[in-house]
Design a protein that fits this description.
The structure holds 2 protein chains of 2 kinds. By secondary structure, chain A is mainly alpha-helical. Helices cover 38% and strands 4% of the residues of chain B. In chain B, strand 5 and strand 6 form a beta hairpin. The chains are: A mainly alpha, B mainly alpha. Chains A and B meet through helix 2, helix 3, helix 7 and helix 8 of A and helix 12 and helix 15 of B.
């Protein structure tokens, strides 16, 4: 799927690096995490206003006079990114899959559906089997770790977290921001509901991102203190073997390097 | 020099102390120099009920308060000699020697006391019978410990404190004593809230935040629920723009002492009046009347607030489900790393040493 400007395997100083994310995708991710971190820093001090850490953090970000404005502007950027990303993958889906079907004269609803499900972020049967393999491994039924392909079920879960979180958090935040205007069309109790949605979903998102996601990409023993794929777009061979063994074997074979494939367990 | 003349000198010395205020800087209206004794931090005793009573007056604080121009004896009217006997509790409704300038009447807090008596905080019900749990109903000093002025400075923007430049304009004509300072503070402190909103919440919370009080009067924990709203959170971080208790529970233009229960048709928190209360010109001016449907004091009680109750349950369950699942996974994963070859089953297809 990689475009030619990103070689699938890049060799530097005798080490192999495997392509994962384009610059465009990395930029989207940078916008995503900077907005989410800023929103957390300007949001959670309000939720936990009685905690000793709340006031210094909030004041450092402009205090009550400015932090709410920052929160709203940054929230709007995140909503914008969400819309942009949705258009982005739809555009990719159309140009890479629908147009190809058209060219090949196989443009039927069924084929479009099949192509839709074949996208790399869509959960599939392999994810289910990988999950079973993972539990077998974690519970000592086998010594063979699961062999994930390009996107593991964990990464797909990470991906859908914003897809569930932003539609809940964003519109709720937007209504609370423009509460006076929305009060002409929505009942007052809707604001109560939006408030719970906004604050509780935000907590779930933050807990998940800063504990689970950051563990997966930064804190886990072979990554600590920082996984670098989000900056370079490339994954080291050791990480590929550890996290995407099925993809690793496939790429090495495709590139004619099958003799140099290393074992998964070492 | 004989003994008697020494005694006379001592008496004269103390008399001079009393008359000329040798006890340090005294405030203007202390004609009898009461602070000669009351300036001492340790001036205290154990009263008949065994309670510790402190009679120290902090002059610096007292001078910032609204009573600085009132003579001590105006409130402590039962004191007739010095040193005096134990003084009675001050009755705030007595007339003091200040004259209210617009009507030339003797000043008294009685109109405020009358309003309080009529309000939900009054000790008597509509029929004049004593309400249950008398001890829970507030008197003046339950909410007003010695109050302090919060003067505003209008020059170069609003800032707390006295504007020297503003004051200099008063002092050109009103140069006698500290009249200009007192008057400046009297007026400007009333152009904003007398106290910070967090202090007001604290005052109401003294009773309304008390679990026993809530049970005795069958009231919700309105303090905790209010603290969950953005109204309070903004206040908590220093804003004075969002409402504290008074802003929503006092009808606009009415005295803060006249708070009515929500059953009263004229109450600010009566269902019929909430749309007006929320949409006053300082607050949600542009909002529709439906905004009043927003529930401020949500306790998540299943019967009173079913929507919030079940939403909270849903999100708590979701959060617990996701986080427990992944936390267990992380722990298992970390443990597994320690024992990579520890599987109790070694099936023939366990091909981790092969390349595929």
């Amino acid at each position: 799927m990689a475009m030619p400007k990103y070689p699938i395997i890049c060799e530097r100083n005798g080490r192999r690096y495997f392509y994962r994310f384009s610059l465009h995708q990395r930029l989207q991710h940078i916008v995503l995490f900077t907005t989410v971190i800023t929103l957390s820093l300007t949001g959670f001090p309000l939720k936990y206003h009685d905690q000793p850490w709340a006031e210094p953090i909030y004041n450092a970000l402009g205090g009550i006079d400015h932090a709410p404005t920052i929160h709203r502007i940054v929230g709007s950027i995140l909503l914008g990114l969400f819309v942009y990303h949705t258009i982005y993958w739809m555009y990719l889906f159309y140009t890479r899959r629908v147009l190809r079907l058209k060219k090949e004269g196989r443009l039927t609803l069924g084929n479009i559906g099949r192509e839709f499900l074949a996208q790399e972020m869509v959960p599939n049967k392999k994810d289910f089997y990988d999950l079973i393999d993972m539990f077998k491994y974690l519970l000592y039924f086998t010594n063979r770790p699961p062999r994930y392909d390009r996107m593991s079920w964990k990464e797909k879960f990470d991906y859908y977290a914003p897809y569930w979180g932003i539609p809940i958090l964003g519109p709720a935040g937007f209504v609370l921001w423009w509460r006076d205007e929305f009060s002409h069309i929505l009942p007052g109790i809707a604001m109560n509901a939006f408030y719970i949605m906004h604050t509780d979903e935000a907590l779930l998102a933050a807990l998940f991102l800063f504990f689970v996601h950051w563990y997966n990409v930064h804190y886990s023993p072979e990554k600590f203190p920082l996984g670098t794929v989000f900056i370079t777009g490339y994954l080291t061979e050791a990480d590929m073997i550890h996290e995407h063994y099925a993809e690793y074997v496939r790429i090495m074979t495709e590139q004619g390097l099958q003799d140099e494939i290393k074992p998964q367990h070492h | 020099m004989g003994k008697s003349s020494f005694k006379t000198r001592v008496i004269l010395f103390f008399a001079a102390l009393l008359l000329f205020g040798a006890g340090g800087e005294t405030y203007a209206e202390d004609e009898l120099n009461c602070v000669l004794c009351h300036k001492h931090r340790g001036l205290s005793r154990i009263d008949e009920n065994g309670n510790f009573r402190l009679f120290y007056i902090n002059e610096a604080l007292f001078e910032e308060g609204p009573h600085v121009r009132v003579k001590c004896m105006d409130c402590h009217q039962d004191i007739s000699k010095i040193p005096h006997d134990p003084a009675k509790k001050v009755d705030c409704t007595t007339e003091c020697h200040l004259t209210e300038p617009s009507g030339q009447k003797k000043f008294s807090h009685k109109p405020v006391a009358d309003l309080l008596a009529k309000s939900v905080h009054g000790k008597l019900d509509a029929e004049g019978n004593a309400k249950e749990h008398q001890q829970d109903y507030p008197g003046c000093k339950d909410c007003h410990e010695e109050p302090l002025y919060r003067p505003l400075s209008f020059f170069k923007g609003k800032a707390p404190g006295i504007s020297e430049r503003g004051l200099s304009r008063c002092k050109t004509c009103h140069s006698t004593g500290n009249f200009a300072e007192s008057f400046y503070k009297h007026v400007t402190s009333r152009l904003q809230k007398m106290r910070k909103p967090t202090e007001i919440v604290g005052i109401c919370a003294k009773c309304h935040g008390d679990k026993g009080f809530q049970q005795r009067h069958d009231l919700d924990d309105v303090v905790t629920s209010y603290k969950e709203t953005f109204h309070y959170k903004a206040i908590r971080f220093g804003s004075e723009e969002t409402p504290d208790c008074m802003d929503c529970h006092v009808v606009k233009g009415e005295s803060v002492h006249f708070i009515e229960g929500q059953d009263s048709p004229t109450s600010a928190s009566n269902k019929q009046n909430v749309p007006t209360t929320c949409r006053t010109s300082e607050c949600h001016e542009k909002a529709g009347p439906k905004l009043a449907g927003f529930q401020v004091h949500v306790t998540y009680d299943k019967d009173k607030y079913p929507l919030q109750h079940y939403m909270l349950k849903f999100f708590t369950a979701l959060m617990a489900g996701v986080m427990y699942f992944f936390m267990v996974l992380i722990i298992l994963e970390l443990l597994r790393r320690l024992f990579p070859n520890f599987s109790f089953r070694k099936p023939p297809d366990d091909d981790h040493h092969s390349s595929k």
